């Protein structure tokens, strides 16, 4: 155990963020560099090393949290990094982006603020990189088997790294121009600087993983031909079909999916563009959707110099404390104030968009530009969403981003049809307990099989699918498989 009295003598303290006025002028990560190390050992000492660590249940990766908390408390950073990497390929990703269901399940959180598990995690891995403890781990021998991984998000990268280390020759195919999937083009720079992805990719290259960018399976390469070329295939293409909002005025210029808006802002940071073709500068911005993607749009709009930012959510505003029907250790629905929300803007709950209004088309335009959004208050009655008469109002909107989630994997490119894949009742690629699809030698991991989920679940799926592939290729496997395809979050 780290500090037997730590949870009694030390209060919870989290990473400090840079002043709002400073950080909205750049795209660097919002946290004060180096602010965690002076405090993190004492924070790790708040871990009670409880008899049944429910943080393990909250985390689908099964991270060995009490163990690396103990090492962090003792400042044995090398041992802490080894324990951290035993279950997680990319802790610098989860330490920055995961909503930390482990903290919701922390035993200390029953009646005190939970251990800052996420902050301890990111401190360990950042220290490990700085100390040179993160090194390539190439396999001792090659199996002679080849695997294609379709998609380079967290699920695809985790599967690829595990299979490479098991001795298989792995090629990752990515349709974008850079590796990383939504980590690269869906997550803004201020939440995770892309240098963290770049150095992991270099580690994976040194281990033997090969990468092919700007290749879309289904369009550039026929899926059936790909299957014949490799001994096994892992589909980790994500759930990239955005949920639309079919209301009058949807066709107006200036109404975009979040995943049309966010990647362009990231391309500016990559140096590909000088200015984003879709910019919030000087505009009244409305973000429809109250989740993390919506918050990413809010923070991006602030940095582009929006005149105003309003975020709409159809559900009621959550409370600041756990509801009685969401008891510990489940993951509660709480009112979240992200770094983007700290930077300004208005959040409106329990409203639904009825239609958009726009200007008349100018010369050369087929439709006009969006100018305003009409909304109405809604409430749930008998399990149904009903509009409240007399609550209509209009708000200015010169840029609208739709961040209402995703509905499934892309089928327009022909990948699903060319493989002949079966889908489940929710439109995801169906798989068995080994993550295998109905097509021999073809496996699926991540959101393509699970549906829209969290980064920590994607990495867990990638690791688990890798074990299924390894068993398929060799008859046995020593790879770690933390979850089954049917496992779900610890919720009510």
Automatic annotation (TrEMBL):
UniProt entry keywords in alphabetical sequence: Amino-acid biosynthesis, Glutamate biosynthesis, Iron, Iron-sulfur, Metal-binding, Oxidoreductase
Pathway the protein contributes to: Amino-acid biosynthesis
UniProt keyword Iron-sulfur, yes or no: yes
Pfam families: Fer4_20, Pyr_redox_2
A GO molecular-function annotation: iron-sulfur cluster binding
Biological process annotations from GO: glutamate biosynthetic process
Annotated protein name in UniProt: Glutamate synthase, NADH/NADPH, small subunit
């Amino acid at each position: 155990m780290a500090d037997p009295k730590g949870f009694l003598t030390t209060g919870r303290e989290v990473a400090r963020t840079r002043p709002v006025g400073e950080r909205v002028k750049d795209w660097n990560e919002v946290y004060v560099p180096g602010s965690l190390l002076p405090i993190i050992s004492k924070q790790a000492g708040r871990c009670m090393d409880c008899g049944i660590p429910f943080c393990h249940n909250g985390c689908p990766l099964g991270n060995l949290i009490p163990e690396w908390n103990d090492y962090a408390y003792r400042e044995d950073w090398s041992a802490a990094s080894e324990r951290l990497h035993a279950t997680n390929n990319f802790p610098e990703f989860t330490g920055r982006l995961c909503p930390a269901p482990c903290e919701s399940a922390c035993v200390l959180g029953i009646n005190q603020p939970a251990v800052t598990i996420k902050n301890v995690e990111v401190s360990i891995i950042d220290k490990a990189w700085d100390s040179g403890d993160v090194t390539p781990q190439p396999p001792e021998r090659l199996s002679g088997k080849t695997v294609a991984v379709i998609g380079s998000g967290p699920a695809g990268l985790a599967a690829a790294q595990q299979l490479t280390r098991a001795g298989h020759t792995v090629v990752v195919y990515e349709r974008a121009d850079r590796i990383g999937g939504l980590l690269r083009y869906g997550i803004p720079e201020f939440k995770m600087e892309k240098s963290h992805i770049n150095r992991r990719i270099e580690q994976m290259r040194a281990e033997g993983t090969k990468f092919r960018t700007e290749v879309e399976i289904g369009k550039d390469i026929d899926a059936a031909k790909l299957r014949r070329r490799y001994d096994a295939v892992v589909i980790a293409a994500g759930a990239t079909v955005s949920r639309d909002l079919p209301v009058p005025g949807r066709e107006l210029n200036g109404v975009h999916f979040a995943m049309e808006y966010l990647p362009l802002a990231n391309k500016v940071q990559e140096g590909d563009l000088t200015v984003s073709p879709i910019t919030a500068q000087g505009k009244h911005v409305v973000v429809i959707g109250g989740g993390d993607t919506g918050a990413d749009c809010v923070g991006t709009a602030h940095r582009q110099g929006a005149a105003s930012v309003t975020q709409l959510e159809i559900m009621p505003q959550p409370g600041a404390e756990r509801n009685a029907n969401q008891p510990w250790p489940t993951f509660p629905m709480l009112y979240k104030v992200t770094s983007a929300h700290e930077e300004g803007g208005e959040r409106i709950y329990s409203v639904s968009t009825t239609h958009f209004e726009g200007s008349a088309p100018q010369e050369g335009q087929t439709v006009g530009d969006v100018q305003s959004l009409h909304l109405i208050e809604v409430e749930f009655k008998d399990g149904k969403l009903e509009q409240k008469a007399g609550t209509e109002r209009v708000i200015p909107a010169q840029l609208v981003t739709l961040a209402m989630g995703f509905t499934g994997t892309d089928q327009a490119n022909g990948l699903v049809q060319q493989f002949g894949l079966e889908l489940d009742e929710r439109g995801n690629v169906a798989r068995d307990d080994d993550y295998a699809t109905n097509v021999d030698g073809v496996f699926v991991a991540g959101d393509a099989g699970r549906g829209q989920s969290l980064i920590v679940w994607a990495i867990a799926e990638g690791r688990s699918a890798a074990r299924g592939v390894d068993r398929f290729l060799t008859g046995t496997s020593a790879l770690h498989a933390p979850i089954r395809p049917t496992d779900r979050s610890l919720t009510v």
